[in-house]
Write a structure and sequence with these properties.
heterodimer, A: alpha+beta, 6-stranded antiparallel β-sheet, B: alpha/beta, 7-stranded mixed β-sheet, 16 helices, 47% helix, globular
């Protein structure tokens, strides 16, 4: 926004680091913390240190798929889970009526407290420097990234660099006819870095996202809305947060549900000629799963109302976030629109909603580690990679941060596979399939979602976190104890036989089932829908040591859904075989005549690392995969032959 | 998923179809033993030594009926052609039995092998060297172009329409389940309950079963394509019949209770099994010249999938001929102008006018030259134009399609049993999704993106 008076600066050597992270949003915070915790001298540089881990859109974390990502981050030793557990104002488990794979924890955050807590964690982290500044360019020599230069002329050198520029990258805010250069929430944009990336040869895309207006809670008539309180049942994101820390429901803040109506829709329709979405002003591609309200009205004209969730933004503010009213309509139209909604007839708008366009590094230019293919030792994460969402950003930040740290230490890179974590699905989708819109994780993107549950992230990832040095021995041992307790109990239930006693058969018949004739293994008995672990204890001896609720949860899930879990694991095993077939890095796709043209172009562009990855590229058909497999085998055999000679 | 086609278990008939005394069905892959064990009655093949031949029976596990007496070769990896476990079933070689066995193999876990796929595996597993592999590349390369055309060509328009309708029905349900999961607070999507999913699963299963019933390989190859030879007396029906029945191709079945009259005879015409209807009738009317064949023909025509209408080209068209032409107007028919060795008297223009642009064959059944084009045309009609069988408007003609439909049906069975066991909808949908994928492999439409597109086009989502 601000006018640049002078572009002059004199460059100076400002320092040397192992790892530099550019941008301290949700991705950058995780990247920097991971790097520092892995023992690297790390700098986190951001445009405004008062916006570290800021939530410029909705004040909430988690939900389906995303909530699981937060747990994965926690199991790998990241910060997001702990930070939200310190600062939430409401906690809810969604999808409780469904299967275990899709249960989803979601928190409303006190957004200012969230920022403060994260900033403090970063400040207190040894090896980590938090600094304010705008990065103008990268120092790249012979295709290797060696550091950064800021707008004040400071030159920092580093072994590896992670860019998490978010919507600041040539950000442009749009409200009705008004357009101006800006980062999120009217912060400074980063104007020069994008140009520098283009000069280095990167293909940048333009994406768009948006946010709704905020209103003053004092002026909301809550009696016209429906209360949505938190859960009484204890749940946290971090595996480390003790149950007793849980905030009682009475002390949690509620959200409130209201609806748009025909009047709202008419106001919007009357002003579509002023909607940047439809006048061609907005060039960036927006997300389908999070459309603006004007988009919803146009695309779903026959719906006569849409839900609006009013979410408190914190304990020490009256601001309410009007979820589902994301818009870039002119300010006065926004005001009118708000006033037509039940509960908001007299609401004072504190900030208007806006759309923001920003630059994205088209993710086909990344390796599965998030290192760029073009510039060595340079990593990107978060919205810069084309995603949307705090959790997606944090997961990528952690992932890229780990790899940047490993690179700085000269160690092998780290990847997560599709069957190991939602973060792995996200990474693979981005680098293999790319994205034409801001990418959001959905459970349906994960073909093995039954294995990627929010209850077992620790089983999947704690060991990896420990190997990386991000999980303490103490925490790792605790996890091993839990694991042992689960395995022991599963083994025990596989041995105990429940006899067809009168007591058992009375219970069985009460639930409309046929009485037992023969004995039945406890593990088989537990599979019946009406049997829980607790009911099982009526008929069998308790475990030698009393089991915690998280252990019991594991025992129940692993027993009840064993058939489906096994099936998913078989699918994984099949995929692994193809995953094991590596494609040589120097493969020349032009030399394989038999490939279809589209497949050859896609393979050349994405340069997959395994045959499995190649098979997931759209436009690469099974016959192309077969040809590729044959070709690789040919190379392999040719090599063996030449060795023979 | 289309991505897992590598190294699953494949099968194919490895002897030319319909020829020779013995047919071999080859199965290769990790699950080869499992597949054969499910349909083999004899000793436990998982315990026999490698590279042995074992006597037993192939049976349909569902009906417990024996299909054929067989010799099964068990060859375990790595010393086999493909370097994988290989099973070869040597059966009696009739097209009917061979196809039925292949069907069973495909239904119980194997996938139809692509052309050249056994060789490809041999290569991929390091069994064949570089120079040999050039040939493999050619095969696969050729396949790329050919299979695309073939896939399109094979796919009857009605079938693909029906499959797509089924897939859309599944997709609607799946998208709905996904919305329930990913947008739990979204109030405008119907909550997919177990009941709703059950209703859909059963409905789709019924439709798939119906489809399977129409399958040529399944039904026609098992029962034969019902064919009648009609024509007024003395036009040469029986000589044509005899020509079709000549050599060792014919299988004659005695229907109980009819000791003298053989009512049905089977004949294998270039791999197409024909069930010749009322052959006794043909013989009788030829015996007794004065009897009019029309009444008898009417019945035969009604129960036939294919009618061979014989006209005597050495005589002018009679009223009876015209009556028969009219009677067969709605049937798939081949018109045979017989007795071309005699002077032509028939008015060809009149015939053309009456029957329109149709399959006309000229033969002189007395000499051998005439039946070649007839056999060719029958094969053409069957393989390329897909003769409709049993009044079905859609019919499955391809073994790969049949096996995919079986797979889809199996997935639906899993959906149903999962729901009966009280499993949550989002788990049971795994099987629903498998069903959708299998059907998609038939039409070549399997791509995950569809689900998300459906999600976002059908529901107004946005929290």
């Amino acid at each position: 926004m601000s006018e640049i008076v002078s572009e002059e600066n004199i460059q100076y050597d400002a320092g040397d680091y192992d790892v530099i992270v550019v941008g301290a949003g949700h991705a950058g915070s995780e990247a920097a913390l991971a790097s520092a915790r892995m023992g690297n001298k790390t700098m986190l540089i951001t445009i405004n240190v008062d916006m570290v881990a800021f939530m410029p859109c909705n004040p909430s974390l988690g939900g389906p798929a995303k909530g699981t990502v937060v747990r994965e981050i926690d199991a790998l030793g990241g910060e997001m889970g702990r930070n939200i557990d310190k600062t939430y104002i409401q906690m809810r488990m969604l999808n409780t009526g469904k299967g275990p794979a899709v249960r989803a924890l979601r928190a409303q955050a006190d957004k200012h407290a969230y920022h403060r807590a994260m900033k403090q964690t970063i400040e207190e982290q040894s090896n980590l420097t938090l600094r304010q500044g705008i990065v103008d360019s990268l120092i790249v020599e012979d295709g290797v990234c060696k550091g950064i230069v800021t707008y004040t002329g400071a030159k920092y050198t580093a072994k590896s660099v992670v860019i998490c520029a978010g919507t600041a990258a040539r950000g442009r805010i749009i409200i009705g006819e008004l357009r101006y250069s800006s980062g999120p929430n009217n912060s400074q944009p980063a104007l020069k870095l994008s140009k520098n990336l283009e000069d280095l040869g990167f293909d940048l895309k333009r994406f768009k996202t948006g946010t709704p207006p905020r209103v003053n809670g004092r002026t909301i008539d809550f009696s016209e809305t429906e209360e949505q309180p938190g859960d009484p049942e204890v749940n946290h994101f971090s595996y480390e947060t003790p149950d007793e820390d849980y905030i009682p429901v009475k002390d949690q803040l509620s959200c409130w549900l209201t609806y748009t109506n025909e009047t709202t829709h008419q106001i919007i329709r009357d002003n579509l000629d002023r909607a940047p979405m439809f006048t061609g002003v907005i060039e960036g591609v927006g997300p389908r799963y999070c459309p603006s309200i004007e988009d919803k009205i146009v695309r779903f004209a026959d719906k006569n109302r849409h839900q609006v969730f009013l979410e408190p933004e914190g304990r020490d503010t009256n601001e309410y976030y009007c979820d589902s009213l994301s818009t870039s309509l002119p300010e006065e139209v926004q005001q009118k629109m708000l006033h037509s909604v039940e509960g908001l007839h007299h609401a004072e708008m504190m900030r208007p909603g806006y759309a923001i366009e920003y630059d994205v590094v088209a993710p086909y230019q990344l390796k599965p580690t998030f290192e760029t293919k073009l510039v060595k030792n340079l990593y990107t994460a978060g919205q810069t990679n084309g995603t949307s969402g705090y959790e997606e950003a944090a997961g990528q930040g952690l992932y890229a941060g780990i790899n940047a740290a490993l690179r700085a230490q000269g160690k092998d890179q780290f990847t997560l596979k599709r069957d190991e974590a939602y973060i792995g699905v996200l990474a693979d989708d981005l680098v293999t399939k790319g994205t034409n819109e801001p990418y959001r994780l959905l459970t349906s993107r994960a073909e093995y979602r039954l294995l990627l549950r929010n209850d077992n992230a620790d089983f999947r990832l704690t060991e990896k976190g420990h190997d990386l040095g991000l999980i303490s021995d103490e925490r790792y041992n605790k996890f091993l104890d839990k694991k042992k307790a689960v395995m022991d109990e599963l083994a025990r239930l596989d041995k105990i036989r429940i006899k067809p006693s009168d007591e058992v058969n009375k219970f069985v018949e009460e639930h409309g089932d046929k009485p037992l004739k023969d004995g039945i293994l406890a593990s088989i008995f537990l599979r019946r829908p009406y049997v829980t672990y607790q009911t099982l204890l009526q008929f069998i001896e308790p475990a030698p040591k009393p089991l915690g609720r998280r252990v019991i949860e594991q025992v129940e899930i692993r027993t009840k859904y064993a058939g489906y879990i096994k099936k998913a694991e078989q699918n994984v095993a099949r995929m692994k075989k193809m995953e094991a077939k590596k494609i040589p890095e120097d493969i020349d796709y032009e030399a394989i005549d038999s490939l279809a043209t589209e497949a050859r172009q896609k393979l050349e562009k994405i340069r997959p690392q395994t045959v499995a990855q190649a098979s997931r590229i759209s436009g690469v058909n099974p016959s192309d995969v077969a040809i590729l497999g044959v070709y690789i085998q040919q190379g392999h055999i040719a090599k063996i032959n030449s060795e023979d000679k | 998923m289309a991505t897992t086609t590598d190294f699953d278990t494949i099968a194919a008939i490895s002897t030319p179809p319909g020829e020779g005394g013995i047919s071999i069905i080859r199965i290769s892959g990790e699950e080869a033993l499992q597949v054969i064990s499910k349909i083999y009655r004899g000793k436990d093949l998982s315990k026999v030594a490698s590279h042995t031949i074992n006597y037993g029976h192939i049976m349909d596990p569902e009906t417990k009926e024996d299909i054929d007496e067989v010799m099964v070769s068990v060859m375990l990896a790595p010393k086999t052609y493909t370097c994988e476990d290989v099973i070869e079933i040597n059966c009696h070689g009739g097209i009917v039995a061979t196809n039925t066995i292949l069907q069973l193999v495909l239904s119980y876990g194997a996938r139809m092998a692509e052309p050249g796929e056994f060789t490809k595996r041999a290569f991929l597993n390091g069994r064949i060297d570089l120079s040999q592999s050039e040939a493999v590349m050619d095969i696969i390369d050729a396949k790329t172009n050919r299979s695309m055309k073939a896939a399109e060509g094979q796919l009857d328009g009605n079938l693909s329409r029906l499959i797509r309708t089924l897939r859309q029905q599944i997709l609607d349900v799946l998208a709905n389940v996904e919305v329930n999961i990913d947008y739990p607070e979204y109030d405008d999507a119907e909550v997919v309950t177990s009941n709703l999913l059950m209703k859909n699963a059963k409905d789709i299963k019924t439709k798939i079963i119906k489809l399977l019933e129409t399958s040529k390989q399944g039904q026609v190859l098992r029962d034969g394509l019902a064919t009648s030879i009609v024509g007024r007396p003395n036009v040469g029906k029986s000589s044509i019949l005899n020509h079709l029945l000549h050599q060792d191709k014919a299988i004659v079945t005695d229907v109980p209770g009819t000791t003298r009259d053989v009512l049905e005879e089977y004949v294998n015409v270039r791999g197409v099994p024909l069930k010749l209807v009322d052959t006794a009738g043909i013989r009788k009317t030829e015996d007794k010249v004065e009897k009019i064949g029309v009444e008898r023909s009417r019945k035969a025509i009604q129960s036939s999938d294919l009618v061979l209408l014989v006209l005597n080209s050495s005589e002018a068209l009679s009223d009876e001929d015209k009556q028969l032409i009219k009677l067969t107007d709605n049937s798939k028919r081949i018109v045979i102008l017989n007795k071309t060795d005699l002077p032509q008297k028939i008015d060809i223009d009149e015939v053309n006018q009456l029957i329109g642009k149709e399959n006309i064959i000229t033969t002189s059944a007395i000499k051998d030259d005439g039946t070649e084009p007839l056999e060719e045309m029958i094969a053409h009609l069957f393989f390329n134009e897909g003769i409709q069988s049993s009044q079905a408007d859609v019919m499955v003609t391809n073994a790969r399609h049949v096996s995919l439909l079986h797979k889809a049906k199996e997935s639906l069975n899993n959906v149903i049993s999962g729901l009966n066991d009280g499993m949550p909808v989002d788990l049971v949908q795994m099987d629903m999704r498998d069903c959708w994928e299998s059907l998609g492999e038939i039409t070549g439409d399997s791509y995950n993106g569809e689900l998300l597109d459906q999600l976002f086009s059908q529901f107004c989502l946005g929290k």
